[in-house]
Every structure is written in structure tokens, then in C-alpha cells.
Amino acid sequence: MSAIVLLVLGLGTMALGYFLYSRFIAEKIFQLDENYVTPAHAMEDGIDFVPTNKYILWGHHFTSVAGAAPIVGPAIAVIWGWVPAFLWVTFGTVFFAGIHDSGAIWASVRNKAKSVGALTGDVVGARARSIFMIVIFLVLLMVNAVFGVVIANLLINNPGSVVPVWGAIVVALIIGQAIYRFKWNLPLVSLIGVAALYWLIYMGPKVPISMPENVMGLNPNATWIILLFAYAAIASLLPVWMLLQPRDYINGLQLFVGLILLYVAVFLSNPTVVAPAFNSDVPAGTPSLIPLLFVTIACGAISGFHGLVSSGTTSKQLNKETDARYVGYFGAIGEGSLALAAIIAASAGFATLADWKAVYHSFGQGGVAAFVNGGATILHNGTGIDADVSATMLTVMAALFAGTTMDTGLRLQRYIFQEWGEIYNIKWMGKALPATILAVTTCLILAFGAGGASGSGGLIIWPLFGTTNQLLAGLTLLVIAVMLVRLGRPTVYVTAPLTFVLFMTVLALLIQLGDFYKAENWFLLVLDVIVLIASILVTLECVSALKREKAKAAAAS
Fold it and tell me: How many domains does the chain have?
């Protein structure tokens, strides 16, 4: 089958979702109000609370939520065949991710831009808030620790990506000054910024940089991880307009250009999908399609981490409440488009089925490598762009996505510590610098304490990320549902996806428990039990709150 069919059907479905479904949700369910004074204005401080142009904020939101996950997950999930992955990405984006992301922004904006964990205390109760914030902290710890490893590996395996990845930071700093201090024309600044990034991508392979084998007793992987966390710590303390916003915005434009190039190459080269539609001959040890598909592909369909970004940084920068539809729902569409590209690259970027099977010889194979290699082949065949430049461009795309997510993730982890400081009246923890130090320290303890000198400790608990992340998505939807019941609005558009996500995720957690027990992996077994119990407790608290609010509404009528 032609990959063009997948591309047209996928993008067409997402476009209909944005133009029709998201408008209905924004106007009839959330009832977004253009005149509502958002926290960005009411609490403006020039650091975290900054009213922001919706196009710039979309760039921040899109690149923050995307990361490497919408590439890795779909590129692994095609092992079950391209049809299940394709259907979950397209319909998950329209009916799950869009309402989750825009809903989390709306809920946070209506509660002084509190994170979804903190606002749970106002909406559900203090007990639910305390448990929920532990789950959130674990998710952020996993994301930050693992993405440090992911970016380090990308930089080591492709030295040509070092210049564009780090050069993008310099470009972002300049762009921030041009937009906010010098008030330059946004389209002109955008054009210059994108041109600069693509020049860096072109120059990268010509000036490859490799880390020395030994830097103060550290290997290249550990050295890169420490440098990345040092950078992320500084970035999390700077005003959002100075680095975070412009970095995410210009990266978002560059990455969207990269996606367009890849899509154009699909039309020009018309590659054949060689992967099976449904793979009945999966390698030994591959878990069952249901429920594992729905936790293997999280980002790209629905992801709890999106709710953290939506309620953590995005809600603090929303200029108008009505911008939540564009920033949140269209941000989900952007990520779904990336996941679609990953599916096409991982299923149509191979010459033959035998070549595809050689890569997908066991569960967990594919991932970023399949996206980069398959996508580079499609780009080269369709546009004639040099294969090395194509591979570098896609590697940089993955690294920049992961980098912007790590930037935002560490800032969110800092917010968690600050919120704990406010909740429990620990004044020093409520300040930005001590909270940042705590955030970095916990990540490094996991990275080097569990992973030794390599700093790859985050990978040890990563098997729990898929289920923990999806539980977080379901719980976020529960909080949104409670708010809707309080306001007397329909909840089915939220409760239907949350029921599906929670059911599939708890089932996956139980299967994981069995796997950890058989493998005698007691550390992950204990963590799995803790996450499961915490999620059940929060769910019970939310369901109780839903019943209370429905009873109040019935009594009032």
C-alpha cells in the first residue's frame, strides 16, 4: 500500500478534529471566554507569568509536550502492524489528546494557573492532592532523567548533531531579545531564526564534535548528562521570554518545516508500506497488543505529561482564554502529526519486508533509529537531500524535541517543589533557586545512583513510564470532569476517554506486575504497586467528588 494513503487519511482526520470537534468542545463544553482575565495578566511577573502571543505559546507548548516519545512510541508499536498504531494515533489525537490538553489549560487558568496536582486540592480535596503530586513527581523524574540519556546518546552517536543542538540555544537567546526587547517584526524574526537553525544543521556534519573519552574520570555519556542538567537548571531559572519561549517557538517552526519536508518527500517518492497491516508473526516475547499498545504509544495519542505542561507553564502564559483551543488542541494535532510521520518512516522507510523484520526482531526495537534511518531514506529518495544531511536533520529534530521537553520538565519539577513549599509552609523550598537545586539533585541521584558512572539510571525505572504517564492522563481528565459537573456542563466527552484510558492502563499495570514478579525485579515491582495504589486512591477520591457534585446539582434543581 502507498504511504500517501496513510498520510492523507491521518492528516485529514486530524484536520476535521480541529476545525469541527475542537470548536464544539471550546464553545459548548469549556465555554472559553475571550474577556476572562487570565493569570498571565492577573499575576504577571515577567519571569513565569508572561502574556504571550498564541503562535509563540503554541511553539512552546508543542515542542515541550512532544519530546522524543511521539517518535519512539509509534516507531516501536508498529511491531504489531501499522493499522493499530495508525488508528490509535489519529483517533487518540482527536478524541483524547485534544480535549485532555486544552482542558488542562482551561482548568489551570480558572484556578490561578495551578498545576493539575495542586488544583486537585481545590477541586477534589487535600488528600487526593497529596497522593496525586507524588505520581506527578515520579513522572517528571522519569522524563528528566531519561531524556538526559536520550539526548546524550544522540549526541554521541551522531557528532554532526552537536553544533545544531547547542547552537539552537544561542539562536533562541537572540530571538528572545529581538522579539521582547527590540520588538522586531515576528514573521521576519521567525524567518531569520529558522534559516539560522537549518544553516546549523547543514554545518553540523562538516564540524562533527565528539566528547573526549575521559573528562575528570567521566565517560562521554556521563559528561553530556551533567552538561545537559547544568544547562536545564539555568534555563529553568531564566524568565520564560528570554530562553524557554523563543527556543520552543523557533524549534517548533524548524521542526514543523522538517515535518513538511518529510511529508512532501512522501508525496514525491510514493514509498510503499512494507510493514504488515496486522503482524500475526510477532517475535517471541512480544506482549499482547491489548492493552500494551495504549501505553506504548502515549505521546502522539494522549499523555499525562501534556497535562503537566498545560497546567504548569502554558497556563501561566496564556494571553486570552480562547487561545487554549489553538495552543492546547492544535498542539496535540502537531504531536499527532509527528507520531504519524514516525509510523510512516518506520513502516515505509524500508526497501523490503525482510529489511523491516531484520530491525523488528524483538519487542522494543525500532524507536528513534527506525525513524531517523527510514525517514532519511524517504527524504533522500523524494527530495534528493543528501542522506547524511537528512539523517542529521532528523536526529537534530529528535534531540531538539527531547531538549525542549527536558527544559520544561525541569522547570515543572521546580514548580512541584515550590508548590510543596507553599502547601507545607516550608519557606525556603518555595523559592526558585533552592527548588531548582532539589529538582536537579533528585534527577542526578537517580541517574548516577541507580545507573553508576554512566548516568543512565533513569532507564531503570523507564519501563514504568508508559503506565504511570497514562494513569496521570486519566486522573487529569477526572479532575476536569469534576470541574464540569460543578458548572453543570456535559461530562461524557471527558468521562468516555478517561474510562478507556484508566481501564487499559490499570490492566497494563497488572500485567507489568506479573512480569516484574517473574523477573524477580523487586525494585520495579514495589514501585509499580505504589503507583497502582496511589492511582486507585486518587480515582476513588475523584469519583467521590463527582458523586458529591452531582448530588448537589440534583438537589439544586
Answer: 1
CA distances from 292 to 31, 131, 196, 467, 493 (A): 35, 25, 41, 9, 24
Cβ atoms of 116 and 510 closer than 8 Å: no
Q: How far, in Å, are 16, 81, 351, 407, 482 from residue 361 at the CA level? A: 37, 13, 16, 34, 45
Q: Is 297 helix (H, G, I), strand (E, B) or coil?
A: coil
The answer to the question of residue 51 being in a domain is no
Which amino acid belongs to residue 22? Answer: S
pLDDT digits (tens, 9 = 90+) for 140-165: 888 888 888 888 888 888 888 899 88
Nearest to 377 by CA among 401, 340, 351: 351
What average pLDDT does range 321-333 have in this prediction?
96
3-state SS record for 493-546: HHHHHHHHHHHHHHHHHHHHHHHHHHCCCHHHHHHHHHHHHHHHHHHHHHHHHH
Distance CA 303, CA 470 (A): 6
Give residue 85's domain range: 3-41+67-556
Q: Is residue 551 part of a domain?
A: yes
d(CA 176, CA 81): 43
The CA-based diameter of the chain, rounded to the nearest angstrom, is: 72
For cell 475542537, what's the residue?
A: 22
Query: What is the rounded CA–CA span in Å between residue 468 and residue 527?
Result: 10
With respect to residue 122, please indicate whether it lies within any of the assigned structural domains: yes
List, in sequence order, every beta strand (DSSP E) within 476-546: none
Which CATH number does the domain housing residue 290 bear? 1.20.1740
Matching residue, cell 509563540: 56
Range with the poorest average pLDDT among 103-107, 124-128, 211-215, 218-222: 124-128
Measure the CA–CA gap between 233 and 238, rounded to whole angstroms.
9
**pTM, rounded to two decimals:** 0.88
Cell of 128: 487526593
Per-residue pLDDT tens digits for 384-426:
888 877 887 887 777 777 778 888 888 889 988 998 998 888 8
CA–CA separation, 117 vs 126, rounded Å? 10
CB 255 within 8 A of CB 455: no
| Residue 54 counted as domain residue | no
Q: Cis ω on the peptide bond leading into residue 276 (within 30° of 0)?
A: no
* Residue 185: φ, ψ to 5°: -60, 125
